[in-house]
Specification:
single chain; 161 residues; alpha+beta; 2 domains; 5-stranded antiparallel β-sheet; 1 helix; 10 strands
């Protein structure tokens, strides 16, 4: 009798756990997957992080910095031909612009900024697929490298695909 009760409890907890996992995957807001290709310390003061991002709609990457921290980086598209990129603190700091007037696409860009108290402690690097919302967005594959102080933190949302 005790074995049957334990078996029923285990079965119910397993079904409940699987149901929660499925709900979490289907209700996620970010449609991206991130693979860290390399993360390395440069001396004792800096860290470089290289990521391969498969982007459906949008991906925010949050950096926690202190005033005076410098961040440098670049990205390029491995698959696809256009991506929107912006950096925000308390307000917009930077947004990628097309390099050529006759070609409005942004296949790559380089960025650099210094954190300041007026912009706050959290900075968001946002990669967005510029595909119209009425269309099914095509998947983009992006290589991103960020160089930041070793005292800073980088937060990338967990994949939901």
């Amino acid at each position: 009798m005790v074995k049957k009760i334990i078996a029923i409890i285990m079965a119910l907890s397993l079904v409940g756990t699987m149901g929660c996992t499925i709900a979490a995957k289907t209700t996620g807001s970010s449609s991206a997957s991130v693979k860290t290709l390399r993360e390395a310390k440069i001396g004792s003061a800096w860290v470089t992080k290289q990521m391969e991002i498969t982007l459906g709609k949008e991906l925010p990457i949050v950096l926690k910095l202190t005033s005076g921290d410098k961040v440098d980086g670049y990205f390029y598209l491995e698959k696809g031909d256009d991506v929107d990129f912006s950096i925000t603190g308390n307000s917009l700091i930077y947004t990628s612009q097309p390099k050529e007037a006759n070609n409005p696409r942004i296949p790559s860009d380089r960025f650099s900024f210094t954190a300041s108290t007026s912009q706050g402690l959290a900075y968001t690097l946002t990669l967005s697929n510029p595909t119209s919302t009425s269309e099914q967005p095509s998947k983009l594959v992006i290589f991103l490298e960020i160089i930041y102080p070793a005292t800073a933190s980088v937060f990338v949302p967990a994949p939901t695909d």
